[in-house]
Amino acid sequence: xxxxxxxxxxxxxxxxxxxxxxxxxxxxxxxxxxxxxxxxxxxxxxxxxxxxxxxxxxxxxxxxxxxxxxxxxxxxxxxxxxxxxxxxxxxxxxxxxxxxxxxxxxxxxxxxxxxxxxxxxxxxxxxxxxxxxxxxxxxxxxxxxxxxxxxxxxxxxxxxxxxxxxxxxxxxxxxxxxxxxxxxxxxxxxxxxxxxxxxxxxxxxxxxxxxxxxxxxxxxxxxxxxxxxxxxxxxxxxxxxxxxxxxxxxxxxxxxxxxxxxxxxxxxxxxxxxxxxxxxxxxxxxxxxxxxxxxxxxxxxxxxxxxxxxxxxxxxxxxxxxxxxxxxxxxxxxxxxxxxxxxxxxxxxxxxxxxxxxxxxxxxxxxxxxxxxxxxxxxxxxx
Length: 383
What we know:
By secondary structure, this protein is mostly beta strands. The chain has 1 helix and 34 strands. The strands form 10 sheets. It has a 4-stranded antiparallel beta sheet with strand order 1-34-33-32, with no helix packed on it. Strands 2-3-4-5 form a 4-stranded antiparallel beta sheet, with no helix packed on it. It has a 4-stranded antiparallel beta sheet with strand order 6-7-10-11, with no helix packed on it. The longest helix is centred in the first third of the chain and has 37 residues. The protein starts with a helix and ends with a strand.
């Protein structure tokens, strides 16, 4: 005997079973995708209270007491700032710490072995040859002897003997410099050392495990007259000489370089003659054992330039790349791969700073967007 109810319900149950199965499969796929997405994330960037001033092309230096000295920079009108502030990781706040003896942007700040900070060069209407020391014990700046050459956009590296190498940059009359000099903290004086093989700015300088310094890329000239380098050279403190080493895999300027835990050097980002529109996603690694550069097999997740000083070696051996884009990402040397950190900084962080704190977190400050809108914002990266 026919059962009309059964004839209606059975197809309906089959349809519902099919829909339920499809829904479960979709949920499994979604969960798998979310799981894959989550595992690809590496840490998180979160906003904290802002700095006391908007800054780009400033410096941020970890002091022996765990605080961070943030000095100078510019707001966007081309003139440098003299103001200084201190970040306290315990309270997560910034506080004004007076002024330098001169306003400056695109200068260098180097922590010396005696705990003081050497602030050198920079730009404010003209290229600066002045230098000063910040003493954390008194929170005061003291002028020291003039640099041999006034310069900005140069590189400064603390050498193993306690001296500071200052190399390249731009000088008076918009000249591109090959000249280098040494600062001696014992006498507070600057003296000439050997010159670079190539005059440049927007290069990198990285201290190698053996005490030598690797210089990569950079440029000279402006706009249609610009020349961007793929060359690299090494400074030897033993004899004060610069000598050429192997070439980068591509020409780069406005990039960054970081020494890895194994002594190799990671070079990331930068751009070609098109500046922002020619920014790179690729990276390469320098091997000091044979003086060669090799491309990293995986590219970064986003193109980056104007990120100097924001590629930070973490305590895990990975590298945080914090600047040059609105998202930070992390390089894992074990897999030659990059993964995004969670969190969005809103706009590209051009000429921002990144500073490794004593607890392994990283402070990211300031910078500007592509419209040269300078920021006072600050963030903390946590692994």
